[in-house]
């Protein structure tokens, strides 16, 4: 089993899920679009899977975080750090500042 991005803490899983949802919505993508893109990459994801991750009911594995960010057409390296940040100002102030061509 892969490592969980959010570890074992339910609060962390909820936090990561909320951030992931914010990113998806900022990209203008639906649950279906992202789940389909993940399935196309070989992950067994459905809308329900993504919804459970966003609600903090299912942990996000590190390999999944990389793939889901790429499916949302975001550079995974800077955004995976934003998923983990507990500073609300950092998230809102940097979402639009990351160069998506990285």
From TrEMBL:
MF annotations from Gene Ontology: DNA binding
Superkingdom in the source lineage: Bacteria
Residue intervals passing through the bilayer: none
Domain HTH cro/C1-type, first and last residues per copy: 19-79
Gene3D superfamilies according to UniProt: lambda repressor-like DNA-binding domains
Name the UniProt record assigns to this protein: HTH cro/C1-type domain-containing protein
Species of origin: Bifidobacterium biavatii DSM 23969
